[in-house]
Design goal:
This protein has twelve helices and no strands. It is mainly α and about 270 residues long. It has two domains: about 140 residues, no CATH class; about 110 residues. The two termini are about 30 Å apart.
Length: about 270
């Protein structure tokens, strides 16, 4: 039986399509705008003018979202996009998908999620080259993954508490020191350990029940993509008011990857220990 048929209820393909339908039926989303966005995005070799057009298309949905006074509905939409992004990235690591619409929606919502205003952060995020070079999954029939996830391997999870309060191991302390030194040497900054505590808050946000379950029950190479994407979005939100840190996170891929790998290992330990 193909691996996809072994996916547990919360991470199977039906879950992705359920999320897709709920997002697509939202009053904020217009299918013609997604198609227009995708036509522009996937033509390749995008210019700055293309970037402005893409952002303008996405901001049409952002404007509709901002006009809605129903905060509970807006929060539900934020969570729908978050879950769709996470499940799609997770499943696409191990299964060849054959649905062009899902890919279009995935890339579109990747931009939309960064532009939507949260309850705490205004919608003033700048679209960067990282967003332009977002790798599209090859949505074609092919060999399916061989990783298995048996239903009896899962358990009922308790809510995540204070992830950042978990004491660092000696190895983690060494890794964090190396990251801080690397950041400072590469950019002439003077970040301290206290500055990096904010990354722990990002990890707390990322490590909800869904992500904890994925990390606990799957190999690192399968779930890292989903974690990395969620962590990047969390960093963008966290450092909106810290231009120095934000610019490094947004422009230095090596530094960002080093930090992400470190906190992913922390997340793995959190998932395992709990």
């Amino acid at each position: 039986m193909p691996w996809g048929e072994h996916l547990e209820e919360r991470t199977d393909l039906n879950q992705i399509y359920d999320l897709e339908q709920r997002i697509s039926s939202s009053t904020y989303i217009h299918e013609d705008e997604i198609e227009r966005f995708a036509d522009q995005f996937f033509k390749g070799d995008l210019t700055n003018q293309d970037r402005l057009k893409l952002e303008g298309t996405v901001r049409l949905a952002v404007d509709r979202f901002a006009l809605d006074e129903a905060e509970s509905q807006k929060e539900e939409f934020r969570q729908l996009i978050k879950s769709f992004q996470r499940f799609y990235a997770f499943v696409a690591q191990v299964i060849s998908l054959d649905d062009a619409w899902l890919e279009k929606l995935y890339v579109y919502t990747s931009w939309l999620s960064r532009l939507l205003p949260s309850r705490d952060v205004p919608a003033n995020i700048t679209i960067t080259d990282d967003m332009l070079t977002l790798s599209a999954f090859r949505l074609q029939k092919g060999e399916e993954g061989s990783v298995s996830l048996a239903p009896d391997e899962t358990t009922t999870l308790s809510p995540i508490t204070e992830f950042g309060a978990n004491a660092y191991t000696e190895e983690e302390e060494k890794s964090l020191s190396e990251i801080i030194d690397s950041f400072n040497e590469r950019h002439g900054t003077s970040f301290s350990r206290e500055d990096f505590v904010r990354f722990e808050r990002v990890t707390r946000e990322v490590m909800d029940d869904e992500m904890t379950e994925m990390i606990r029950n799957n190999p690192a190479d399968v779930v890292y993509g989903a974690f990395s994407q969620a962590f990047f979005q969390g960093m963008v939100q966290m450092f909106q008011q810290d231009n120095e840190m934000r610019n490094i996170v947004m422009t230095d891929k090596d530094a960002r990857e080093q930090a992400t790998r470190h906190f992913f290992k922390r997340a793995q330990r959190q998932a395992r220990d709990n």
